[in-house]
């Protein structure tokens, strides 16, 4: 019988494998397991939004003219309000993309909505990683990579937002120029280097265009590749549950299950962005007009991910300048524009190492934390979110004042107070709530769910019948680490000589106490056995007197305690 000739696809695959050795890598990747949980989709939303940004960005780059040369808009083109108006080539090409190029306005709006969704998904994904402890060893470097992607996303948003050269984006560049100049000693050099002379110069739009379409996307692509490679190398994290340990992954293989789901989800994300671009108008630059340094639009705000910087600038009092060594420090710009975001991003970027210093933990962690089981970390995360939201509201304080009929100065002073008090209050309340939820979990493990059925025992005592927890729920409530504050050696050694390194150990111990001094320990088998014996002693003389249904229910409720940790 004549052997069957291989198909074209098989021949192509064999050709590539014989020259690249790709089959082994594809086979290894295809066998990787990924757990199935909705929160893991946040990272995928960010990735798919970035793909949409690349596709729409290529279309826009073909028609956009990154030039600040002055021209007049043609008198025979839409919109009518811009006919004959003097403007830059960048603004003119933006209008032509919107009104003259087929599908141009849809591409512009899809690009803008995709950018907003991209930043929202990255932020939500990072906070999911933060609250669940997915940044712990061996993923500290992957956290730094993800954090860098967040910073690059901010840079991509700012450079793209500024390209149309309209009044709104021009005012944003003016603020960036002021922030740069507020930096001591180097500020004026940074501004001159960025704008090629006095603001606004003639080169900022071409430079932003190069950074927006070449430099930043290239870095994002490289870091996304590193990020995904580390996910494959380190295994995917998973939530606690029966059969799930730090040494395995319970989920679906990449091929065919996960790949099919991921492909379908990409088209869902693409479709949502397309619908938003088609029906939700955004960044209508023809309403603002070309950039002119004299007018400033009322009710103007940047995109949401930059709104916290705008809010910080609005909250800072204006009369805060000091002179040191002949240099004037404009604290009203330096503090909100450089110091506040610098502290915020430094804490976020260094968090895995801060938490590691508090625990001296050297083990690998592939099981995620429930946020309630790490109350201090959860409280810090909520405090950061609270500070961000307060600054975002402050960035729109003029709109709040006009829409609610309130005094602008009153709103500003209220937000100033809340900026300092709000995060502290949010941290305290969140930590108390987490500890209360942990106590409730202990009660559930020890006693089960309340059913509302009360039976009277022979001795007259009343006893409520509790429904025992199923193994999945019980596992989730008891499988977490009991982390205690660090214990250190005394200040003086056996010879009464001050111990070297005691001060550093003392600082680490204080940090550890901040994290773990207030904690609720998980239920131990001994505690569970003691609770079982207590219930059995109460009911041992009376269960036989109950009717058969009640006797079976009470017996099940009691015996469930015995094997709760089996």
From TrEMBL:
| GO cellular component entries | plasma membrane
Q: Which cofactor does it need?
A: heme
- The highest taxon in the source lineage is Bacteria
List the EC numbers from the record.
Answer: 7.1.1.8
Q: Any idea where the Cytochrome b/b6 N-terminal region profile domain is?
A: 12-240
Domain Cytochrome b/b6 C-terminal region profile positions: 241-436
How is this protein positioned relative to the membrane? Answer: Multi-pass membrane protein
GO MF terms here are: metal ion binding; oxidoreductase activity; quinol-cytochrome-c reductase activity
Q: What class of enzyme is it?
A: translocase
Q: For this chain's UniProt record, which GO biological process terms are given? A: respiratory electron transport chain
Subcellular location(s): the record lists: Cell membrane
Q: Where is this region: Disordered?
A: 547-566
TM region(s), chain numbering: 41-65, 113-131, 143-163, 209-233, 254-282, 333-354, 374-395, 410-430
- Tell me what reaction this enzyme catalyses: a quinol + 2 Fe(III)-[cytochrome c](out) = a quinone + 2 Fe(II)-[cytochrome c](out) + 2 H(+)(out)
Q: Where is this protein primarily located?
A: membrane
* UniProt entry tagged with the keyword Lipid metabolism: no
Q: Which Pfam families match?
A: Cytochrom_B_N_2
Which controlled-vocabulary keywords does the entry list?
A: Cell membrane, Electron transport, Heme, Iron, Membrane, Metal-binding, Respiratory chain, Translocase, Transmembrane, Transmembrane helix, Transport
Family annotation (InterPro entries):
Cyt_b/b6_C (IPR005798), Cyt_b/b6_N (IPR005797), Cytb/b6-like_sf (IPR027387), Di-haem_cyt_TM (IPR016174)
The record's section on PANTHER family has: CYTOCHROME B
Q: What is this protein called?
A: Cytochrome bc1 complex cytochrome b subunit
């Amino acid at each position: 019988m004549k052997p069957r000739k291989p198909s074209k696809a098989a021949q192509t695959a064999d050709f590539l494998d014989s020259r690249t050795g790709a089959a082994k890598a594809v086979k290894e990747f295809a066998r990787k397991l990924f757990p199935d949980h909705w929160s893991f989709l946040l990272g995928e939303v960010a990735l798919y939004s970035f793909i949409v940004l690349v596709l729409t960005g290529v279309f826009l780059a073909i028609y956009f003219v990154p030039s600040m040369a002055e021209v007049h808009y043609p008198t025979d083109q839409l919109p009518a309000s811009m006919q004959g108006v003097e403007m830059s080539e960048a603004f003119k090409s933006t209008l032509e993309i919107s009104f003259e190029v087929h599908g141009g306005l849809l591409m512009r709006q899809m690009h803008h909505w995709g950018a907003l969704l991209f930043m929202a998904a990255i932020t939500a994904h990072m906070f999911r990683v933060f609250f669940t402890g997915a940044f712990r060893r061996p993923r500290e470097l992957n956290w730094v990579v993800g954090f860098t992607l967040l910073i690059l996303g901010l840079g991509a948003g700012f450079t793209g937002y500024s390209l149309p050269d309209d009044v709104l984006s021009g005012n944003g560049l003016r603020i960036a120029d002021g922030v740069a100049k507020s930096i001591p000693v180097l500020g004026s050099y940074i501004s001159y280097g960025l704008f090629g002379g006095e603001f606004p110069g003639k080169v900022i739009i071409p430079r932003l265009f190069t950074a927006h379409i070449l430099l930043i996307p290239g870095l994002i692509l490289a870091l996304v590749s590193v990020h995904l490679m580390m996910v494959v190398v380190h295994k995917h994290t998973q939530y606690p549950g029966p059969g799930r340990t730090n040494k395995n992954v319970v989920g679906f293989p990449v091929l065919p299950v996960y790949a099919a789901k991921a492909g379908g989800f990409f088209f869902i994300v693409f479709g949502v962005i397309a619908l938003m671009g088609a029906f939700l108008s955004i960044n209508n630059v023809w309403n603002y007009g070309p950039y002119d340094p004299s007018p400033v639009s009322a009710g103007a705000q940047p995109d949401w991910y930059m709104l916290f910087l705008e809010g910080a600038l609005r909250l800072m009092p204006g009369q805060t300048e000091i002179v040191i060594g002949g240099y004037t420090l404009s604290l009203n710009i330096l503090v909100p524009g450089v110091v506040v975001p610098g502290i915020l991003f430094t804490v976020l970027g260094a968090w895995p190492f801060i938490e590691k210093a508090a625990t001296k933990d050297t083990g690998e962690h592939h099981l995620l934390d429930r946020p309630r089981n790490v109350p201090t970390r959860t409280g810090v995360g909520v405090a950061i979110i609270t500070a961000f939201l307060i600054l975002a509201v402050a960035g729109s304080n003029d709109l709040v004042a006009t829409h609610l009929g309130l005094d602008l100065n009153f709103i500003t002073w209220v937000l100033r107070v809340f900026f300092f008090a709000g995060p502290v209050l949010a941290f305290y309340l969140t930590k108390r709530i987490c500890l209360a939820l942990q106590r409730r979990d202990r009660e559930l493990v020890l006693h089960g769910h309340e059913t509302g059925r009360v039976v009277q025992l022979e001795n007259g005592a009343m006893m409520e019948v509790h429904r025992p927890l199923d193994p999945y729920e019980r596992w989730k409530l008891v499988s977490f680490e009991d982390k205690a504050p660090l214990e250190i050696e005394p200040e003086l050694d056996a010879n009464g000589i001050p111990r070297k390194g005691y001060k550093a150990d003392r600082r680490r111990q204080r940090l550890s106490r901040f994290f773990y001094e207030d904690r609720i320990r998980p239920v131990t088998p001994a505690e569970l056995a003691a609770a079982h014996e207590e219930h059995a002693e109460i009911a041992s003389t009376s269960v036989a007197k109950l009717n058969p249904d009640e006797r079976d229910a009470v017996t099940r409720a009691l015996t469930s305690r015995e094997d709760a940790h089996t």
